[in-house]
């Protein structure tokens, strides 16, 4: 019996959720599913160049778990690119952290624009609440 999957913390929702090769019809093409936590791991490690340990801390998982997540994600992305498959992003056991290192992830305003009190943190520009 396997353990329940712990929710992983992500800091962004992608603007685009489907990528497909040009000229390929959706009907006959295999779809590769990339979960939101896999995308977040790729974003942190490959795009932002964080060390695995730092990325694991941001996602609230162990270093070994982040390693498995990013390896699975890289295999899926490679398969889609090399074999002309559709890449669909979404799903997974995730929790959206709306404030990232004191910055609002939606309007990317820095710390001095974040209103703090005992109950919550709220961005003064877009009113996003930290969860």
Written overview of the protein:
The protein is α/β, with parallel strands linked by helices. The chain contains three helices and nine strands; from the N terminus they run E-E-E-H-H-H-E-E-E-E-E-E. It has helices spanning about 35-45, 50-60, 65-85; strands at about 10, 20, 30-35, 85-90, 95, 100, 105, 115, 120-125. The strands form four sheets. It has a three-stranded mixed beta sheet. Strand 6 (about 100) and strand 7 (about 105) form a beta hairpin. Helix 1 runs antiparallel to helix 2 (about 50-60). The chain is elongated. The relative contact order is 0.20. Residues about 110-120 have low confidence and may be disordered.
| Residue share in helix | 25-40%
Q: Compute the number of helices.
A: 3
Q: Quote the average pLDDT.
A: 79
Shape: elongated
Order of helices and strands: EEEHHHEEEEEE
Compute the number of strand runs. Answer: 9
Give Rg in angstroms: 17 Å
Strand content of the residues, in percent? 15-25%
**Strand order across the biggest sheet?**
2-4-3
Instruction: Enumerate the spans where pLDDT stays under 50 for 5 or more consecutive residues.
Output: 108-120
